[in-house]
């Protein structure tokens, strides 16, 4: 990596670090205020509703009707009445089904191997925390939009001091569902990390069939110390090979780190874009 690129990376990383500190301060403020802002009352609905009946995320012949709800005693969540009309709303059967769900108040996002799992586990210890059935509960990930809505906690399960927590690393999907839901009240924790540390962690965590052969399980692509060799020396050689543009070198790095030196600048630019897009969509 050139001195100019390294300087640019450090500058962008400082911007990311300052932004991350602001997010953490905002989150602590949110937690501090969380226990004293509950109020009682009946469920209120917005008068406007909207339909979703097209797109790859909607089952053909199915219509989804959404309407915002105001939780009677928990102002930190945006909740919705979701009505499924038409085909396959009741499993394999047809018919209309209505559910009332709450979108997460906190979504953990950012870059891989940057502590997202640790943050998710930490926040799940918060009194009243409600987590998803899986940490990476991303919409538009091969499941229908109706299935995604069904994965969200019911509003009746969200109490006065509940905190719904989810995770999705893919910024495009986070922004897409924000548009579909018409900007729910959600706090995003964007996790980043020193690039070299992240690359080293990824090198030790994931295997790749092209590099590790048949011992790399395609079920999760996790390394097994008994089967896969990892060392600082080999890591250095792989990074140097990319820096020197050496052809034909087989490596275990996955996207977006498959060219660790060449893509270093793109990594920091990606982090900046991630934060910028979330900021713009929150205004």
Spell out the key features of this protein.
alpha/beta; 283 residues; single chain; 4-stranded antiparallel β-sheet; 4-stranded parallel β-sheet; 8 strands
In short:
The protein is an alpha/beta fold and 283 residues long.
Q: How are the secondary structure elements laid out?
A:
Layout: H1 3-34, E1 44-52, E2 62-70, E3 79-86, E4 97-102, E5 106-110, H2 116-124, E6 129-136, H3 145-151, E7 163-167, H4 171-180, E8 187-191, H5 195-205, H6 209-212, H7 232-243, H8 264-282
Parallel strand pairs: 5-7, 5-8, 6-7
Antiparallel strand pairs: 1-2, 2-3, 3-4
Task: Explain what this protein looks like in three dimensions.
By secondary structure, the protein is an alpha/beta fold. It folds into 2 domains: 37-191, no CATH class; 194-273, no CATH class. The protein is built from 8 helices and 8 strands. Strands 1-2-3-4 form a 4-stranded antiparallel beta sheet, covered by helices on one side. The chain has a 4-stranded parallel beta sheet with strand order 6-7-5-8, with helices on both faces. Strand 6 (129-136), helix 3 (145-151) and strand 7 (163-167) form a beta-alpha-beta unit. It is elongated and about 65 Å long. Residues 1-13, 15-19 and 34-39 have low confidence and may be disordered.
Shape: elongated
The strand order across the widest sheet is: 1-2-3-4
Biggest β-sheet description? 4 strands, antiparallel
Mean pLDDT: 81
Keywords: Membrane, Transmembrane, Transmembrane helix
Protein name: Sulfotransferase
Transmembrane segments: 12-32
Organism: Spumella elongata
């Amino acid at each position: 990596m050139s001195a100019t690129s390294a300087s640019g990376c450090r500058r962008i990383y400082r911007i990311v670090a300052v932004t991350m500190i602001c997010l953490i301060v905002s989150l602590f403020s949110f937690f501090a205020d969380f226990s004293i802002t509950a109020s009682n009352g009946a469920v209120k609905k917005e008068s406007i509703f909207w339909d979703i009946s097209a797109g790859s995320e909607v089952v053909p012949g199915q219509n989804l009707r959404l309407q915002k709800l105001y939780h009677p005693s928990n102002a930190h969540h945006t909740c919705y009445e979701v009505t499924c009309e038409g085909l396959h709303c009741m499993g394999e059967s047809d018919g209309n089904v209505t559910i009332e769900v709450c979108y997460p108040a906190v979504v953990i996002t950012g870059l891989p191997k940057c502590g997202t799992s640790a943050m998710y586990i930490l926040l799940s210890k918060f009194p009243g925390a409600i987590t998803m059935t899986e940490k990476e509960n991303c919409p538009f990930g091969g499941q229908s939009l109706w299935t995604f809505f069904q994965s969200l906690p019911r509003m009746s399960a969200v109490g006065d001091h509940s905190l719904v927590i989810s995770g999705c690393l893919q910024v495009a999907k986070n922004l897409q569902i924000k548009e579909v839901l018409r900007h729910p009240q959600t706090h995003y924790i964007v996790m980043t990390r020193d690039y070299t540390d992240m690359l080293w962690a990824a090198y030790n965590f994931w295997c790749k069939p092209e590099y590790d052969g048949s011992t790399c399980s395609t079920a999760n692509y996790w390394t097994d110390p008994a089967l896969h060799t990892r060392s600082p020396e080999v890591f250095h050689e792989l990074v140097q090979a990319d820096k020197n543009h050496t052809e034909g070198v087989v490596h275990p790095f996955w996207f977006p780190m498959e060219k660790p030196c060449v893509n270093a600048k793109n990594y920091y630019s990606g982090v900046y874009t991630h934060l910028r897009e979330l900021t713009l969509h929150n205004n």
